[in-house]
Amino acid sequence: MTSPLEIPQVTLCAASCVNVSATIAALKRCMAQVRCARVLLFSDAQGLDLPPGIELVAIPGLKSSADYSRFVLHDLVQWIETTHCLIVQWDGFVTDSGAWNPAFLDYDYIGAP
Predict the structure, then answer these.
(1) CA angle at residue 85 from 79 to 68, to 5 degrees?
(2) Cα(80)–Cα(45) distance, rounded to whole angstroms?
(3) Residue 46 above 60 pLDDT?
(4) d(CA 92, CA 94)
(5) Residues paired with 5 in a beta bridge
(6) Closest Cα partner for 15 from 74, 63, 71, 54?
(7) pLDDT above 70 for 1
(8) Residue 73 DSSP code
(9) 3-state class percentages of the chain: helix first, strand second, coil last, to nearest 5
(10) Residue 31 and residue 55: Cα distance in Å, rounded?
(11) According to the model, what pLDDT value does residue 25 have?
(12) Residue 105: count of CB within 10 angstroms of its CB
């Protein structure tokens, strides 16, 4: 296995209040591929046994897709100290760090509208 891609200007994060164990698994898979400045899990879940390197940030429950969107678009920024963040979900995460292009950092947003 090759060394993880170093992207210190990026914070890896996920926000989940349901399917949290699968979200943690997705973060772990990402961490095997990339090294970011920080790895943050935003959740209302308690008593989690997080692996080293994942920081839990307690948030109110996200009960709908509208709650999730509001959090990501308006609240997430207060925890991001890097120039960029990479948001992953339980079913969408880094699978091939070799596909990384440094030009991605030239954009404000890459993803679905």
Answers:
(1) 70
(2) 21
(3) yes
(4) 7
(5) 34
(6) 71
(7) no
(8) I
(9) 35, 25, 40
(10) 13
(11) 97
(12) 13
Put simply, whether the predicted model's pTM sits higher than 0.85 gets the answer: yes
Instruction: Copy the structure tokens of residue 13.
Output: 């994060």
Closest CA to 72 of 11, 24, 8: 11
Helix ranges (H only) for 3-112 are: 20-33, 65-70
pLDDT digits (tens, 9 = 90+) for 55-100: 999 999 999 999 999 999 999 999 999 999 999 999 999 999 999 9
How many separate helices (H) and strands (E) can be counted in the chain?
2, 4
Distances (CA, A) of 29 to 19, 53, 64, 88, 95: 16, 12, 25, 11, 8
Cα distances (Å, whole numbers) of residue 51 to 34, 54, 73, 105: 16, 6, 27, 28
